[in-house]
Each structure stands twice: as structure tokens, then as C-alpha cells.
Amino acid sequence: MEEVTSLNPDAAWPSVSVVMPVRNEAKHILAGVDAVLDQEYEGDIDIWIAVAPSDDETEQIVEELAQENPKVHPVRNDAGVTPAGLNAAISASSGEVVVRVDGHVKLCDGYISRAVETMVRTGAANVGGRQVATGVTGFEKAVAAVMMSVVGSGGADYRVGESEKAVDTVFLGVFDRRAGDEVGWFDESLIRNQDYELNIRLRASGGLVWFDPDLFVEYQPRSSLRAVARQYFDYGFFKAKVLKLHKSSMKFRQIIPPIAMLGLALSLIVGTWFEPAFLISFAYFMALFFGVRGSARSRFRALLIAPVMHFSWSVGLLNGLVKRRGPNPDR
To answer: In the chain, what are the domains?
Structure first.
């Protein structure tokens, strides 16, 4: 396959199409769209919102936004899943640069300009920055604290990275359209991890995936332990699907949760007759408590939240390795 070419650094600011898949995002979509419209960008920019069938007022809100602002365009996503919505919005749009935004995130000021500048400077096929988890409730803040720690993220650059560099994946992404067209955009069979899988193909084609820590996106975590468990089960399940497609894509940080859960289980079992084995469990929970930044309350909550994340991801991964079909978390 030919190497993906980069944007011309001597050309004018490239046109930008922001693509946003949404479903049941009535509470967050206005803030998300406003954050895009408030971006200062010297080139042309438009927003394409792929609306899946929703149980709230999301569809009505998007229609009203489109009527109020000619830059906003609704796109039908009858399939109802994220990758299908992304592909529909990308197909409907024409910007030279494609910016992925989700309905429950908020871009930092200057996000698009900085990302395009970085893309032109580095020749990257995809540029992304930090996912900054923020919460409103005490529980959400505790989930955010775990997500933003090494013990919760495994050291993923898009969560804890501090230096600009080439990486395996980034959060969301700002894409050179030609690079995406070259490899074929999002795999619609992957309800989760479709971004990671696309980045694998971009890198395999010669494209550069670039992390810039000066870019960041605010993300609101799930608001209940059950929702967190479901989310991380889905992440693990679809990670297994990506592994089946790209067997060499497993990273060391991703095998730590299953190892930790196995060690924890053995510690609790063996410890019933050999008490020193309990030290493994003690070390695990101490690593969680001191590895998470935040208030004492968030740290204590992390002692429950982090094991649920690790266990759910591990079970999802094992489930995905043995099953052909899985959950549809977008529905």
C-alpha cells in the first residue's frame, strides 16, 4: 500500500468537517456543539451530527441547531451504532480534515487550530491529545480519578502522557481525510475500539498517529458502578475482536488487568490456608489507594471502582475471545 501523504504546509488553512455521532445526548449535546462553534479557526468549518434513534429529545435538539446555524448538518444513523454514524457523517461531509467529537465531550479552546497546525507540522495522518475525565457527582469524580491514573489507565498516553510523540492511538482524533479514505474509515462491526483499530491500519499504511498533550478534551465518566462495569466489559470484549483482526496489537498495559485479577483471586483463595498470600491482595489495594490522585474520599471509592473496571475489562476480553457476537452498547 502506498504511504499516506500529508497536508501541504504551504497551502491555506484546510477546510474542516467535525463529525459527531450522538444518541440520547440531550443533556450534553448543546455544550458539545457550542464548544465546536466557539473554536477560533481561520479556515472553513462545518459540523455533521449523525443522529441515532434516541429515547430523549436529541433528534429535536439537533434539528433546531441545524435550523439556527447553517454550519450544523444532521445526518441519519439508522444503524444506531457509533462507527456507522461516524462513517455516515464522514461520507456526507467534504472537509480536508475530519475532526471526531462525541456528544458528551467538550473541546478545549483552540483545539482544532492547534490540531491542524500539529498535523501540518508533523505530517501526521491522525492527531489527538489528552482525555481529561471530569465528574460532577462524587462518584463521577472518583471514576475520573481512577481513569486519569496509571493504575486505572495502564499508562495510556492519551490519559497520562506529558510529551509530544508518535503513539499507537489517541482519543477521538483529527484526521487527514486522504489518510482515512486510503485505508477505509471505521469498521462498523466494532461498536467499541473502532478508533484503535483504524489507527492500526493508518500506521500500517505508513501514516503517523501523533499525540500532542497541549490538546485536551473534557470527558464526563459514567454515573453509576453498573454503567462503569458495562462500559469496561464492552471495552474488553471489543478489544478481543480487534486482537482477532490484528493479532500483534496487544500492548503490555492491556494484559495487566487479567494478571492482576488472577493474582487477586489466587491470593484470596490460597490465603485461607496460607495467610501470607493475602499480601498480594494488600499490595493491590495499596497500589490503588496511593496510585490515584484526588481526595481521600475519591481514593477510598477507587478501592471499589478500579477492581470493577479491571474485572469487567478482563471478563469482557475473555468473553470476546470465545464468542463471535457480542453486546451492542450503543443501543
So the answer is: 16-134+157-216 (3.90.550.10)
